[in-house]
Fold these 3 entries.
Entry 1:
Amino acid sequence: MGLLGQIQSGALFTRQTTTLSEGSGSTTAFGLSYILLDVTSTSAARVRLYSDSASLGIDTPRTTSSFNYSASVGLNLDTSLDSASKLIFDPPIIATTFSGSETWYNVSSGSVTITYYPIESAYATRQELTFYAQSLPTGSRITGNLTSPKAFLLLSASASTSQSRLRLFSRDIATIPVTETARGFGTASTDGSSLIVDMVFDSSSYAYKISPVLQAYNLATYIQGDNFVGYAIDNVSTSTLSNVTASLYIYTIED
């Protein structure tokens, strides 16, 4: 993204702090997307940040010992400080919102001060990337390249069918090894696969909230980059034929 794009999206170009008190609520201080740098607590506390109010409502009962949460939960941060202390996020965490500019939070005790860097305060540069696979037999896939920004934040994803798989790659799909495109879901990708994300949609009723946010880059040429991502779409349903549509909701960081 150039200077104009950063200005249009509300970039402030300075680090900010905001303080959250014990309890649950919402704040617009962070903006739409932001980079979490550190958190300082006045006492032992668990701190959670969410992308929307629905996520807060669903996830509030989850205990600190449980790491399983629904794909419908936009969880930007879940951390515990065992005393009055400062926790630095290294590498930093990229967070976002899905409903307006409100970040919802839950602080178990005391108060916390969070340092962050705002990168998006207006919807000017958010967009949708859509992948189509018509008449795709079960157990089969199509591959290709789709026009996209050179670099973007992947915020959420959805599909038209409840049984489909989508993979994104940082290079031309023609250069991706066959062993990678044929790899089964749940099997680890190998080094040099250029894999950005590998996701299976088990529901078509809601968008999957990707929190913390994923960063995607085109690495076809390291100097300049190109405006595409490689992709593979699989029909993993039990039906014999499906028209598969997958959509990604992104925030451009490099045109």
Entry 2:
Amino acid sequence: MRKRKFYTKSFIFLLIVTTFFTTSCKDQSETGLVDLSLKFNSKAKTNVSRDISPSNDELTVFRFEVNGSGPNSKTFNIETSESSTQLCDLEKGKWDISVTGYNVNDEAIVEGNGTYYLFNSQSNVNISLDYIVGNGDVDIDLYWNENQVDPERVSIITTYYKLDNNTFSEYTIEDDFIYEDGHANVSTTLPCGNYVLASKLFSGTTELSGFAEELRVISNHTTSGSNTYIIGDTTLDYGISFTCNTHLPIKGVITSLPETIIQGQTMTLTYTPTEIPDGYSESDIRYSWYYEGSLISGESTNILSILPVEGQHRYDMFAYIDGISGTLGSTKIIITCD
């Protein structure tokens, strides 16, 4: 739902913990016992480029808590800082296992669970940790050139898109926001997860500027950040320039053809991935493009062909795989003339 309020820059993230911890277990001669090897795959952010997110430490799993209940009312509870561990002398049969990952502040940021039947021939379990349920707060500052906007008519519209699996779905929320000259602040509470926040600046009914950024929300935490609206035409000749930043889990670059354009000429932006998470290919990547904070309908590939208009404009692209978002970073396109 699009609302009069405001926003800032956004993201995403992937952490595949690769260290291993194993406890030496004696050979099992009892027919009713089995050893269990656990491996946790945690979707947790490891690198921040241009999104609004907590710090890296706050988005990294430092401690796992594992609970299990099985046959004959048997249970276990362990804590480990490693992504793999081994448990000895478990009763064979059905086990319900849950895992919660905690960050450096001991806040629960990811969790996973499942039911597994354990036998000697089937005693390795991979548990995927998705975002933990719960809510977090966001507090974002937005800025613009106060000499370009009538303070009596200024307003901001923000739209939140929540990433679920491979789909960004619009999420309706009422924001609390405060306006000042050249500045606005928005604060709200959101369910934990990944978002794209699209924002537009208006003077009355006239749209002046916009952007789209990733936003990360974790449980019982306030995510803060800021962004600036770019308004107006400041250069003289037709030209084009880019500011592109990338971060994990999907790295890549944007190129444009032609590199210099004239009025009325079509321009093509092409995103080329240079680093893709293990186990995935280029065909697994999904894309969404934004122009001045508005989703460009129907553009879901790595190539965008546009007919640029005069002025300074902003394009944003988001690449994601299986609900793991990897932002390419904002691509600011400047097209001006005498």
Entry 3:
Amino acid sequence: MKISMTKSAWLFAGLALACFWPATARAQAETTPDTYKEHNAVPHTSAAPAKVDFQGKFSLPFEVRCHGHKMPPGQYTLTVKTVNDAKMATIEHDGKETVLQVSRVSQSSDSGKSAVMVRHGPGPRAHTVESVWVEPLNMMMYLDESGHTGFMDRMFASLKRVPIS
């Protein structure tokens, strides 16, 4: 009985190890584009250049977060582009660019000058760049809505407008 229990335990351990051990794979071919010729194919065209819709500058007096990026206090440049019917926001600071996908766009009746909307709420994400209001485009672009997903953030968070010049 003791021998069969030991064999069963070793068999179970071996099966568990085989199931959870990662299988290794090796590439079998080079993937150089010059190696593979395409016959009867349409020639590749370059992507349409991005159209710059808006560009402005703003200043952050405190550190903020946006899509996991930490943005220290300082001067920033915001560029809004249209790429294949999608809006992209590029935020540049000290020569470093952060490209953010716009999650949602709405035509708003917001009045006032262009501004970056910074949500300040309790919790670890004290300041979050949530959206950008672009007056010339009459458009609210939502960049990161994670700052108000918790109950406390929805109840007690405040929205601050950082003007764009």
